[in-house]
Design a protein that fits this description.
alpha/beta; Rossmann fold; Helicase, Ruva Protein, domain 3; two-stranded antiparallel sheet; 12 helices; 9 strands; binds S-adenosylmethionine
């Protein structure tokens, strides 16, 4: 933020109107913004990709520690706000486009090379955004995302717990996740109805080298498709096989044929994929 104007001042000066549907709750506390930028692990020669520029407060904190920042925002009515709030920041560029609607090729035309992704987005987009980057071949080194506290618990959940879900496994397949800080709703302007947490996912390229990754993704998705059903039931629907064939495959993987998908670890899914490939 320019030294003279606060976010509230900039918003008042430009007459900007918040769009609730786009989850426009902005962070203003400089210490918190610097801490989130720190959590991203960005080095001074690295590129930050921010999704959801908002009033540019996090953009500014990222630009202070990164080589360059490319920030995507869907709401072009923020342009006058950003013109003021990012004044004097030479290494940040705002692109008014929706990353979720761009192909990898379109994305790479704008962001070439490795990058660390940082996002404080509306909650309904965070899971699709995380999946979009973890399942792509884009050279993303890490994702640091502000999410609703409940979503954070899901991202770092243990197998068998109520929070364990397909997205937990998608994260484990790509790297490792930790909650770096809890953020009270009071830290946002305007304040939302929920508390948040920052989750940092460090991507480990080649973690599943030699494995049939699309098959593991399909097994994971189908295992959680109907949570109340057994794994055999879910696999039979997803793969078009009989329940008894599915149960045989599960047994051959060393698992209880009546087990539910939510009890399987990533290792179990890998073993299951090996049995599938042989069957
Ligand atoms: N990064 C800022 C901050 O920390 O204060 C803004 C956060 S605000 C919660 C989320 C921002 O994401 C809003 O400005 C909203 O317009 C934008 N947004 C919503 N959907 C988006 C999308 N699909 N792609 C990019 N930006 C999006």
């Amino acid at each position: 933020m320019s030294e003279e104007l606060s976010v509230k001042d900039v918003i008042a000066a430009t007459g900007f109107r918040f769009n609730k549907g786009l989850g426009q709750n902005f962070l203003t506390d400089k210490n918190l913004l610097a801490a989130i930028a720190f959590d991203s692990g960005l080095g001074k020669d690295e590129t930050a990709v921010e999704v959801g520029t908002g009033a540019g407060t996090l953009t500014r904190a990222l630009a202070a520690i990164a080589g360059r920042v490319i920030s995507f925002e869907v709401d072009s009515s923020l342009a006058p706000v950003l013109e003021l709030s990012l004044r004097g920041v030479e290494n940040a560029e705002v692109i008014f486009r929706d990353v979720l609607k761009m192909s990898d090729e379109q994305f790479e035309e704008i962001v070439s090379g490795e990058f660390r992704l940082v996002a404080n987005l509306p909650y309904y987009i965070t899971t699709p955004l995380i999946m979009r980057f973890l399942e792509s071949d884009l050279p993303v080194k890490s994702l640091t995302v502000m999410v609703q506290k409940e979503v954070a618990d899901r991202l770092v959940a243990e197998a068998g717990s109520a929070d364990y879900s397909a997205v937990t496994l998608a994260v484990q397949m790509a790297g490792s996740a930790k909650i770096t800080r809890l953020v009270s709703r009071k830290m946002f302007y305007p304040a939302p109805n929920v508390d948040s947490a920052v989750v940092h996912i460090e991507v480990e390229r080649g973690k599943l080298a030699g494995e049939d990754v699309p098959l593991i993704h399909k097994l994971v998705r189908s295992a959680f498709a109907m949570r109340r059903k057994t794994l055999a039931n879910n696999l039979s629907v997803a793969f078009g096989i009989s329940k008894s064939d599915a149960a045989d495959i599960i047994s051959a993987a060393g698992l209880d044929p009546f087990i539910r998908g939510e009890r399987l670890s990533l290792e179990d899914f890998k073993t299951l994929s090996h049995v599938f490939l042989k069957s």
